[in-house]
Amino acid sequence: MQKVKQLKDRIATKKSLIGIIGLGYVGLPLALRFAEVGYNVLGFDIDQAKVDAINAGRSYIKHIGDAAIAQGKANGITATADFSRASEADALIICVPTPLNKYREPDLSFVINTTDALLPYLRAGQIVSLESTTYPGTTDEELKPRLESHGFNVGEDIFLVFSPEREDPGNADFCTRTIPKVVGGCTPACLEAGIALYSQVIDQVVPVSSTQAAEMTKLLENIHRAVNIGLVNEMKIIADRMGIDIHEVIKAAATKPFGFVAYYPGPGLGGHCIPIDPFYLTWKAREYGIHTRFIELAGDVNSTMPEWVVDKIADALNRRERSIKGSKILVLGIAYKKNVDDMRESPSVELMKLLQAKGAAIAYSDPWVPVFPKMREHYFELSSIELTPASIASYDLVLIATHHDAFDYALIKKHAQLIVDTRGVYLKTAENIVKA
Fold it and tell me: Among the four 170, 181, 213, 333, which has the fewest Cβ within 10 Å?
């Protein structure tokens, strides 16, 4: 147990170099937080452009400004694409994507490839923490054997934990420091090391009995949201058919001080967690002979939302004796949620694809995404247009897909010929507004 004591002492005295692998929406805020409290931080990323930006004090994530990166650099953050420098760090925190493959199955290639890239440079006395969302068993079944294959005794000379990320980009009410951190270790000594590491930068650390419990905790959090969003999306369809405004109903229900949590419908699920995480559990559950009917039903409801919105658009245009084909449609907001520039799994992109396939001329406006980015599956050679009375009026239909605070909704309502509102922006009905 000597090595865990030595590691904890180095962490407590801030002599440890903290290594963060993956400098995206999760890794970058974590790196800034460790540097803020006095640690030297070495960020690793295979994207040389991100490395160069960090070292120049520039940000590539809009809600994290240049000033924050410059301050982080002054506090002791540097970045590199050279994984051989992993040996310099006492803590290595892995924050890489865990997407789905084309068969909607877990894709652990980023986690596995990152671990394999680190293995030649690991040394005794380090702690390795995986933060990437994954199915229960990943840390023990995939990472632990790889460490042991290089001669390490996990829990004695190297320490392995799972601590799921809980970042919520654009949420002004919570930050890395104030969001409680769940930690599970492969052994009691691993857990001890994990608590020592994260308690330096997080107000509340929540230990659990195993890495599997920590992995399942993250899935429960996001599946809870996916299921409840699926429920309210189904309620929206029913309410729409009955001529009831679901947003009015939700606001009224939310006045109950117990037993109800408000979830809001939308045009589909987006982001790197909620549309993806349920598939990690349903895939793993099959290994145990379990069919996750409830989770998959919610997924089915949520995945059909873009098609339902397109049907509402078609109906709205038909009432004005127009079709989708040949119509000019302006999509407001293409990020997956309000007030961020994150495009991952954005339902707006699916809506654009469906509308274009039906013959619409598509344009978009999004102050957070000035140019449509290169994406693996969908790409539109478009740039964000400026919203003016003339530009708004020139479109046959304006689709509110992501409700950024920066949009002037009064201006849009005044000048748009027709609005399809998927976010409940407009509480009062109007002749040119259709709720979807």
Answer: 213
